[in-house]
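To whoever is on call:

I kicked off a structure prediction for a single chain this morning and the downstream step that reads the tokens threw a length-mismatch warning. I double-checked the sequence; it's 80 residues and nothing unusual in it as far as I can see. Pasting both halves so you can look.
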Amino acid sequence: MNIFQIIGWFGAASYLISYFLLSINKLKANSITYQLMNVIGGICLVISAYDTKDKPNLFTNFVWMCIGLATIISILKRRR
């Protein structure tokens, strides 16, 4: 297992744990924690997909990460 695979597995775990916590009402979709876990997962999976040249996976996770970042910005603006 190389470093890119480890990063990818960490990203997958971040996605799955965040979704599980959302599903059992431990996190809310509009929480920074949930969105940050998705952004971290996205970054990790983008890195892993780049290494394997998996362009559809890279694109999907990049967009997912951008959605998370946009949501975090929106949450922070509403808090002001």
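Update from on-call: the warning came from a stale cache, not from the record. Cleared it. Sanity check on the structure: The two ends are 45 Å apart (CA to CA).
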